[in-house]
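Here is the promised in-class demo. Please do not try to memorize the tokens; focus on the logic of going from shape to residues.
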């Protein structure tokens, strides 16, 4: 069990490292390729959408395969794919090669977290599941801090090469990890496994799936818009100095480490997933308001603190993925747990476009961003109220 938690946590560490590199490095890397800052911003939205489309497709594909072939095989297959794509990303010289690498990396990144959480959730006793996923998320998001250090010291190409190398090294730990006993027992039955369309053939299943997706939207809006586009938003807010995207992302993910630790521990203490999600949504609404109100005319260091607080209150990601895994039976668990976070990530592009459209319609970024944030938070809150409480739920059951 310990080996599975370690591999899932380190896999998510490399996953997050790779994922945030683009948020940190899109401006310098695209500028080096000859784009103006305005052109680079447009290409960021395009590449982000394509990367997240890859994550959406990969989430479905790896999730289905996780229920058909096993959690362990998919965990290491996803690590292999995103590691090779990240290595290749360091060699590109044009925007189309860059885009292709981000798409392939997105497909690979889609599989790791869901497969890891599913594996750990099925291996650990019910009373300890929250601690297992808390460790995975907390170790994982610290990958963003390391990404910031390497990107700042060595430049964008070496940062990508380092991420790919770390992922390939992780494959050496494959030997010590065992497959889930629940999945092994499932293989001896005739039940249909990994039928993604089964989610949509039942109103109850679709409701569980939709609520699991919607509660995660504010986390990714904060990361993909408020933090990744922080240089533009900081300028619009009149921040007194330059704000670097990679420093804002590092501050956000540093906050996420503490948020994930806190949400995991609080979930165990309250014996509830749903109440913790609701508490963190309230906190995220408050920190989003603080970002716009206290960020006006602030210093860059104060602005980074505000990004860090956004990260803390967004730190229910571990609970969010755990809820998705606990909501469904063993024959659909990997399918859902892997696709749900990637549906959220896949919606980052549309949320970024909604922010751009709202900003244009309302006459400014500082009006468009809080309006879209408010809508996203409201949707997530309504979904959270309808969540089934899954703390301590016995996972040895099937979806009929």
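The designed amino acids, position by position:
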């Amino acid at each position: 069990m310990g080996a599975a938690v370690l591999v899932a946590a380190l896999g998510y560490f490399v996953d997050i490292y790779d994922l945030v590199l683009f948020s940190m490095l899109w401006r310098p890397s695209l500028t080096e390729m000859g784009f103006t800052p305005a052109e680079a911003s447009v290409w960021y939205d395009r590449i982000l959408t394509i990367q997240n489309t890859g994550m959406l497709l990969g989430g479905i594909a790896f999730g289905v395969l996780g229920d058909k072939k096993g959690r362990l095989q998919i965990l290491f297959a996803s690590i292999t794919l995103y590691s090779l794509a990240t290595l290749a990303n360091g060699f590109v010289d044009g925007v189309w090669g860059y885009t292709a690498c981000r798409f392939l990396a997105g497909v690979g990144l889609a599989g790791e977290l869901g497969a890891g959480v599913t594996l750990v959730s099925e291996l650990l006793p019910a009373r300890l599941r929250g601690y297992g996923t808390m460790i995975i998320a907390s170790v994982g998001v610290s990958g963003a801090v390391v990404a910031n250090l390497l990107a700042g010291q060595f430049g964008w190409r070496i940062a990508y090469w380092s991420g790919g190398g770390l992922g390939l090294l992780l494959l050496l730990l494959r030997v010590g990890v065992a497959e889930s006993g629940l999945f092994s027992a499932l293989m001896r039955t005739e039940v249909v496994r990994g039928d993604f369309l089964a989610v949509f053939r039942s109103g109850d299943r679709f409701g569980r799936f939709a609520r699991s997706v919607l509660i995660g939207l504010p986390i990714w809006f904060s990361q993909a818009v408020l933090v990744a586009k922080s240089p533009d938003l900081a300028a619009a807010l009149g921040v007194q100095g330059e704000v670097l995207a990679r420093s804002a992302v590092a501050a956000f993910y540093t906050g996420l480490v503490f948020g994930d630790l806190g949400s995991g521990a609080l979930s165990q203490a309250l014996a509830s997933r749903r109440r913790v999600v609701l508490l963190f949504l309230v906190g995220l609404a408050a920190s989003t308001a603080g970002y716009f109100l206290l960020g006006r005319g602030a210093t860059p260091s104060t602005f980074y603190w505000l990004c860090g607080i956004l990260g803390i209150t967004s730190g229910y990601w571990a609970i969010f993925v755990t809820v998705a895994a606990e909501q469904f039976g063993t024959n659909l668990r990997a399918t859902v747990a892997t696709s749900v976070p990637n549906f959220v990530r896949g919606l980052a592009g549309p949320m970024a476009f909604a922010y751009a459209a709202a900003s244009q319609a309302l006459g400014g970024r500082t009006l468009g961003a809080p309006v879209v944030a408010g809508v996203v938070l409201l949707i997530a809150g309504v979904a959270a109220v309808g969540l089934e409480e899954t703390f301590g739920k016995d996972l040895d059951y099937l979806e009929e």
